[in-house]
Structure formats: structure tokens, C-alpha cells
Design a protein that fits this description.
Blueprint (H helix, E strand, L loop, with lengths): L6 E8 L4 E3 L6 E3 L2 H6 L10 E11 L6 H14 L5 E5 L5 H11 E2 L5 E4 L12 H13 L13 E5 L2 E4 L4 E2 L8 E2 L7 E3 L3 E3 L13 E2 L7 E5 L6 H8 L6 E6 L9 H12 L3 E6 L12 H8 L3 E2 L5 H13 L4 H8 L23
Parallel strand pairs: 1-4, 1-5, 5-7, 7-8, 15-16, 16-17, 17-18
Antiparallel strand pairs: 2-3, 6-14, 8-9, 9-12, 10-11, 12-13
Helix pairs in contact: 2-3, 3-8, 5-6
The structure holds aspartic acid.
The site of aspartic acid has 11 residues, from loops.
């Protein structure tokens, strides 16, 4: 049995958890890591070795972009062999995007990367930050007693009562302490009196060196359908300069208008080499293009199915695949392939086993 103290690296990026009120404007603004730790003296009771890496200055996660994702991924890569696990403190607003992006960037990850934050600042009496931070540290330190390997071998979001797969989670509430949910994938753990791990939903990785790929191509966008969208608007958006990939947020099981002008514009965009991925606006369930004629005409126009992927995972996956300079066909093939648990895909990953070699 391993009796060594767990070694955890906390990566503090900012977010409400570490914010304080600006005395003049009364708006919350990010504050430094020492303030955060001063408010959680209980952490010392955990018999862990804890170090930190901080963003200077810490940021509101609405200001996160792929350069920040790269900074987090590189901090993990540089420290990978020296720590048992990583806790990333992050604002809730774009947490699901960061979690998804990191899941693609950290290929062959075998250690826990637990992202958490809070709805109330750590200095508030009723803060949820203290509990989230302590539980995140415990999850990052947890090992399977029989096999000795980390319990969690993936990027996950810990919030209040649940641990979710990072690329399956979505922020679902602006004010509830249970702010995240994964609508298409079961929880990785339930947090109550004990932390109950759900063995069947956790990823089991074979030991493999970590491979970090941080290039993201940001020439991608969401195009969310609404009834009444005009031909002119659609045309304008589909001609966004430099655009390579579009996550088309459709109705229900992947449906869109079937008017000839609509389908024609979409087909022409596909023919211009734009990868269009069909993702439902619904939080639960996925795209099934064979269910209705309105979904069928999209696939006939060359739109690919996102199945049950979240929109956060879809857009970051497009950035990641274009960032690797794959051919158009490869991007399309990998979009419908499960790379790290982000979709329940019908494509067998074995045909594309080592996607980093392509
Ligand atoms: N605006 C904050 C952020 O995302 C909200 C939060 O942390 O809950 O950084």
C-alpha cells in the first residue's frame, strides 16, 4: 500500500471562488490566491502536500480564451510527473468549455484534473467554495485501494454534490449551488457523507506518457437557429470570413427548416469546405437525423451529426482538430468519433486508434 502523502498542484485561474467586492463599485473582482487559502484553514487538516500555480492576474472566466487553456495544459504537462493530481480553480461561466478543451489537449491523461469553483466567494459566510475546494482536493488525491491507480483518470468538474465528466458537463444554473449537470452521461461520483465513485462511468486508462497538444484554431463558431431567421442573416453568417467549422444548434433531434433556400445555403457552405456539425439545442438527448425529414435534409446537404455531444465539447473539439491541421475528411471523421468520452458515438474508435499519428 502507498503510504506517501498525496501531492496535489492547485492551479488558480480566478473566478467567483477567489473574488472580493470592490468597495467603490460593489462589483465582484478576482483576488489573489493567498486570500483564497486564508479563508480555507481546514485545508491544512488534509495531510497532503499542496503547491500552487497561479494566473497573474486571476481572471473572470468570461475572459478565458484558448491561450489560457494552453497555460493550464502546459502547467499540468510541466508538473505531471511530480504530482498525483491537479485541482483547477476556475470561474463557473466558461468552466465547461475549459474542461472540454483540456480533455482534448491532454491526450492519454491518466491522472485526475479536477476543475471546481463556486457560486459564492470564499470569504462569504454561506460560501460553497470551501466545500468544493476540499472535496476537489480529496478527489484529486483518491486512489483505488486494490490497484493503487488514481480513482479519476480524466478531466472532471466537481460541483456541490457531483463529479461530472468535464466534456459532458454544462452550466445549468446561474444561482443554484448544484450549478453543473451532465444530461447525457451519468455522474462520475456522488458527493454526500461519502464520495461514492461510479466505477462504470469513470474512464480506465492504460499507463501511457501524456501527450499535450495546445494548438487551437479559433475560426469556428456557433450558429443557433431561431424561427424566422432570414435568408440574408443565414447567408451573412455562413460567409463569416475565415470560418472553417460551425456548430449548428438545431431543434429537437437535429431538425432545421427544410425550405429550399435554407438547405441550399447550407449545402453551398459545406461545398466551400466548411465543416458543419449538427448539435441539438436541447440539453438532454441527441441528434438523430433519420427521425424526421427536416433532419434528413441536413445530412443530405453534408452536415455531420454531433450525436449527443454538448455544444461546449463540439466547439472546442472543432478548434482542437483544426488546430492539428488535419485534412477536412479527417476532421469530419474524428468529429463523429469518441476521442475521450465526449460522445456516445457509433463509430468504433479502434479504426482511428492513435489519432495523434495522423
Ligand atoms: N463570472 C464568474 C466567472 O466565471 C462566475 C463564477 O465564477 O461563478 O469567473
Amino acid at each position: 500500500m502507498n503510504t506517501r502523502k498525496p501531492k496535489i498542484l492547485i492551479i488558480y485561474t480566478g473566478g467567483t471562488i477567489g473574488m472580493i467586492e470592490n468597495p467603490e463599485t460593489h462589483a465582484l473582482q478576482p483576488f489573489d490566491f493567498s486570500h483564497l487559502m486564508d479563508n480555507v484553514p481546514k485545508v491544512k487538516k488534509l495531510d497532503y502536500e499542496i503547491d500552487n500555480f497561479q494566473f497573474v492576474p486571476p481572471i473572470d472566466s468570461s475572459n478565458m480564451d484558448p491561450t489560457h487553456w494552453r497555460d493550464i495544459a502546459l502547467a499540468i504537462e510541466e508538473n505531471y510527473d511530480r504530482y498525483d493530481g491537479f485541482v483547477v480553480l476556475h470561474g463557473t461561466d466558461t468552466m465547461a468549455f475549459t474542461a472540454s478543451a483540456l480533455s482534448f489537449m491532454l491526450e492519454h491523461l491518466c491522472k485526475p484534473v479536477i476543475i471546481t469553483g463556486s457560486q459564492l466567494p470564499i470569504g462569504e459566510v454561506r460560501t460553497d467554495g470551501e466545500e468544493n475546494l476540499i472535496t476537489a482536493l480529496q478527489v484529486a488525491a483518491a486512489r483505488d485501494e486494490k490497484e493503487g491507480r488514481p480513482r479519476v483518470q480524466e478531466v472532471a468538474i466537481l460541483f456541490e454534490n457531483y463529479l461530472w465528466r468535464g466534456n459532458r458537463a454544462t452550466k445549468m444554473s446561474a444561482d443554484n449551488f448544484n450549478a453543473f449537470k451532465s444530461f447525457n452521461y451519468p455522474e462520475l461520483a456522488e458527493i454526500g457523507l461519502d464520495i461514492e465513485y461510479n466505477k462504470n462511468s469513470l474512464r480506465k486508462m492504460k499507463p501511457h506518457p501524456l501527450n499535450v497538444c495546445t494548438d487551437m484554431d479559433t475560426n469556428v463558431m456557433f450558429l443557433e437557429l431561431n424561427p424566422g431567421m432570414t435568408e440574408q442573416t443565414l447567408d451573412y453568417l455562413l460567409h463569416t470570413p475565415g470560418i472553417k467549422g460551425i456548430v449548428l444548434k438545431t431543434y429537437g433531434a437535429g431538425n432545421s427548416p427544410s425550405y429550399p433556400w435554407f438547405i441550399k445555403k447550407i449545402r453551398e457552405a459545406v461545398e466551400r469546405g466548411i465543416v458543419i456539425v449538427n448539435v441539438t439545442q436541447c440539453v438532454n438527448g441527441g441528434v438523430n437525423c433519420n427521425l424526421y425529414e427536416t433532419g434528413n435534409s441536413l445530412s443530405a446537404a453534408g452536415v455531420i451529426s454531433g450525436y449527443d455531444i454538448t455544444s461546449e465539447a463540439a466547439i472546442t473539439k472543432l478548434m482542437f482538430l483544426f488546430g492539428r491541421n488535419y485534412s477536412l475528411n479527417m476532421v469530419k471523421q474524428l468529429m463523429v468519433t469518441d476521442l475521450c468520452g465526449e460522445i456516445s458515438s457509433p463509430t468504433d474508435i479502434s479504426i482511428l486508434q492513435n489519432f495523434s499519428d495522423h
